[in-house]
Fold these 4 entries.
Entry 1:
Amino acid sequence: MAILSDRWIRNEARKSGMIEPFVEHQKHDGCISYGLSSYGYDARVADEFKVFTNIHSAIVDPKNFDADSFVDKKTDVCTIPPNSFALARTVEYFRIPRDVLVICLGKSTYARCGIIVNVTPLEPGWEGHVTLEFSNTTPLPAKIYANEGACQFLFLKGNEPCEVSYAERAGKYMGQRGVTLPKL
């Protein structure tokens, strides 16, 4: 399995719309960087957030998720309460080739502030907006800036195309748009 370069990412984005909208060069003037990097793509967080709240005393149950666990916010700057959590999504829409697996790592700017970004792998054949999970591990409120860099996606090419892609097995998160809550 090889990690794919900026040249490959750019060509695939142009040829098949793998990343839309696609930012060809890293942008970093006065913002948390985003766009194409040497061996990855730094995606932006959109302005739609779901911030965990205990206002309704809901129980977090992945098999029976209660949307009352969140407060919806549409904002340029989202403040996550201390030791709390928020969901968001990428600005970019991804279409993953059937011979590629994509993994995500958080941005160092956020990590150094105690903000952890988690994303499960983007499987071969999957497409959609990526739901981002932000954990504020600090005892202080933490800010997330919409339309700026949130995480870096690394593209790994398999030794051959997979037998069954995410699309072919009708994965439950296929084609998601917006912030998507857990599904069973």
Note: The two ends are 31 Å apart (CA to CA).
Entry 2:
Amino acid sequence: MTIVQSTFDAVVANRRRRKVKRAAMLATLAAIVIALFALTLSLGQSYTPPHQVIGVLLGEDIPGAAFTVGQLRLPRALLCVLAGLCFGLGGVAFQVMLRNPLASPDIIGISFGASAAAVFAIVILSLDGPAVSLIAVFSGLGVALTVYGLASRNGVAGARLILVGIAVSAMLESFVAYVLSQAPAWSLQEAMRWLTGSVNGARIDLVAPLLLALVIFGGLLLARGRDLEALRLGDEMAAGLGVSFERTRMTIMVAAVGLIACATAITGPISFVAFLSGPIAARLFGNGGSLLIPAALVGAVLVLAADYCGQFLLPSRFPVGVVTGALGAPYLLFLIIRANRNGGSL
């Protein structure tokens, strides 16, 4: 009885230590997000003292700082945080659901589908503003359903879905190249923003729609977090645990696509944030526990840091999507090489 009790106590203590460690890691990530957010508001081409930043946030009309912080830096920083949360949360949901680190919206064409529709709306239909964003959102969902449908044969295999997604992306890329070849000079720059990912046109009125999407779709993902964790064990095991895996997979896919498409509609496809956030979170937190919130925080850190680097720490100013693309491409090659060496499939 003593041995059984001591074993039980050891298991409880180990579980408690893991919870404390996880809470500490989450608090650290949240603190990094807050620190980067504060840095973005305070330090740019000019320095704004913290007390002036706080005053602007509280509604004070401080000459110079009210415009620099309130009109320029604050909308940009808020969009970086919200877009990072959306990309990180949506990306890890796909990766966990399909049990494959390559199954991110960047790789399987969802982000590019939203961008392709936006480019078509800008160049061919001469639309702008909310109309372009709505077209991008519905196009991202349509591409996701198309890829899912083409890959659904006797269940959805992660490798098959990735290959179908790559093929769809290639077709969309050809379509975008044709549209850009017909684009007049005045719309070419706006179209290119949708292909690189940028927060250069950040406005405070863009924050509310993205926040609403995060609350609705992110809340849905978090509510289905336990079912998502069950899918990591495989469809048969999930069914044994009482999870309707087809219905759960469809719900999670719609929520994840909603996050990715809405973020893409506001900022364009910020490359590889959805792809990198999950693996980085898994490295930090291990495989125990849900990766949804950790990956979301990692996504916010990546976008904030990449945007600041692209603005102030490189020889020239680059959109945030260029910086994240430079980080993500080598990691993608690393994953492919590792899978090839292990003799496994994608």
Note: The chain has a mean pLDDT of 82.
Entry 3:
Amino acid sequence: MRVALHTKVRTDRIDAYEAAHREVPAELAAAIHAAGATAWTIWRSGSDLFHVVECDDYARLLAALERLPVNVAWQARMAELLDAVHDYSAAGADAALPVVWELP
């Protein structure tokens, strides 16, 4: 499944956000893969961030990552940079953007 998400980086923290993503810890990337993600891409337009996550089960992915120490540490770092954060709680699966149209 593909899941699209929208978050927002603070306008005064864009450079720090992009710098952080050039240095995503290998342990975090491995944990995301182990939790079931096969790909995760983030695009930025101004302060808007658009994510596409490819995984088998997004709710299961969130549950696996929610309390994982490496992800908790990363999310604390991201909370300092973002206006709208990624929700890893059980309700976070409902934050996916609805599909309006897809080229068949």
Note: The first strand starts at residue 2 and ends at 9.
Entry 4:
Amino acid sequence: MEITELPNDKKIILFDGVCNLCNSSVQYVIQRDKKDEFRFVALQSDLGQKIIKHIGIASKNIDSIVLYLPGIAYYYKSSAVIEIAKSLQGFFNYGMLFRLLPNALRDVVYDYIARNRYKWYGKKESCMIPTPELKAKFL
């Protein structure tokens, strides 16, 4: 898939495909995405790398999550989490309270978790393969 073929009406979440915490978070979002707003791409995939290059983020600066709104904007680190939370229902929506904290402080916490996510949650040898039911959610 090319950048020009991305769905303009979907929010695209780029995530670390080998991270257990990230994969659990993707499953959490899928379960609560009642309006079918999100699509998912592993950062390690060819498409993930094309998107990162297209929006101008250096691969070395990306350690976990990016929310890309094609043709509009992108968010990463804690800002991506907050933007995703805006669209979800349930407990995760309380994450919006973190928006009250300064971005720099939120990102310090985010970076700490990102640095330790493999140690705390483990990692897979390869990216997750979606079930047939979920395949349409992944680009």
Note: The two ends are 8 Å apart (CA to CA).
